[in-house]
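Side project, low priority. Logging it here so it doesn't get lost.
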Amino acid sequence: MLNDQATLVAIATPISVKTTSERTNVLVDISTRGTETTFKVLTILKGDRKIESFILHHLTLDDSRMQKVITAQPNLISFEPKSYKVYLVFLQKEADGRYVAVSGQTDPAYSVKQLNDKASPFEFGIPPDAKAF
């Protein structure tokens, strides 16, 4: 189902995260904010193969401490820029050019799957930072 509904299926790594002015509640009382995460594409499995990067529009918790106390899920996602973590993403393109998870804003974790804990920067042609090793 994810593949069928996706306009873009890719393997990518996050390079920047920006909070938007969008604010909303999910599950009535969980405050979230709009977030745009820019990804560098490593490979395209479905969609326009010329895409080198894309912006994923998603929601994150206003208060990250809430993640520990929430028992009813939303399955929200967050990213660490330049962590070299790699994700398999199933996305749909929005009218404004950004992408959203096929599984929606309240459960994007079903459409965005982390493939590793930390990849080598060599995989991306990025010189390693000596302090990081």
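Brief comment: The longest strand covers residues 8-26.
Revisit when time allows.
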